[in-house]
Amino acid sequence: MPPPPPRVPGGGPSVQTAAPWALSRMPAPVGAPRSATNTGLSTSEVETVDFDFGKSDGEGPAQEFALPQKRILRESDVQTFLRSQSCRDYLAFVKCLCSKIVGVKVTEVKQGGLSETLRGLNSILDAVSGYVDQVPPQKHTLRYGNPAFRDWHAMVSDNSEDLIGTILPERLKGAAPELAYYLSDSFGNRTRIDYGTGHETNFVILLYCLAKLGLVTEGDSQALVLSVFNTYLKLMRRVQQTY
Fold first, then answer.
1. Cα 98 to Cα 150: distance, rounded to the nearest angstrom
2. Fewer beta carbons within 10 angstroms: which end of the chain, N or C?
3. Whole-prediction pTM
C-alpha cells in the first residue's frame, strides 16, 4: 500500500494539508528557464494505464500487512514515490473513478443498490458522524478551531480499527490496523485542528486499498464517488461547521 503522510513525535499527523507526495515547487528567477530550477516529476506527468479492478492483492495465499511508516522524508523520496508502481496505480484508480462519473448526477445513484462494502463504508461514516453528537463544542479562547475537535478525533482514532473491521471478511481481518490508519487520518489534524486536501487524499487511498484487496469492484465506481465520497464530504462539512 502507498506510504502514509508524515507524522510527528507523539503519534499525531504532521503539519499537512496537501497530498503527502505533492511536489514542492520554487519559483524560477526572472528570466531563468523552468527546467534550470526544477527537474522533478509532478503528478500530472506520471504515466498511468487503466486501473485493473480485477487484479486483486487480496486473493491467493495469506497476505501480510504492516502498520504504515514514514517513508517520504525528503524531496528525493517524493521523486522515488512518483516513479513507483504504487503511485501509478493510485493515480490510475483516481482517473478511473473520474471517468466513471462524467455526466452522472448524484441522484442517479440508487442507495438501495449499493454493494455490501459500500453500504458498510457509509455505515462507518454515519458512526463517525454520530461521534460529533457525543462531543459538543467547548467554550474556548483559541483563535482557530475548537479544542473539542481533538476529543472527537481521538474517539475516531480509538475506534477506527473496529470500524474498518466491520467491512473486512475473515481472511482480510489482518488488514484492519493498516487500513485504520488511513481512515483515522482522513478526518483532519488533531494537533493543528485543521483539515485539507491531504486528509481527503487519505480517504481516497483507503478506497484504493479496498479496491486492491478486491472489496471494491469496477461496478462500484460511480457509487464509490457519488455516494461514499459524497457522504464523506458532507461529514467533513459538518465537522468544520461544528469545530
1. 33
2. N
3. 0.80
What would you report as the CA-atom Rg of the chain, rounded to the nearest whole angstrom? 19
What are the pLDDT digits (tens) for 163-214?
999 999 999 999 999 999 999 999 999 999 999 999 999 999 999 999 999 9
Q: Is the dihedral of CA 48, 51, 52, 56 positive or negative?
A: positive
Give me 225's grid cell.
Answer: 464517488
The set of residues, in sequence order, having a beta carbon less than 8 Å from that of 171 and lying 6+ positions away, is: 58, 62
Please indicate, yes or no, if residue 15 is contained in any of the structural domains: no
In a domain, 87, yes or no: yes
231, three cell numbers = 457522504
What distance separates the 2 farthest-apart alpha carbons in the chain?
Answer: 60
For residues 106 and 86, give the distance between their C-alpha atoms in angstroms, rounded to a whole number.
Answer: 29
Q: How many structural domains compose the chain?
A: 1
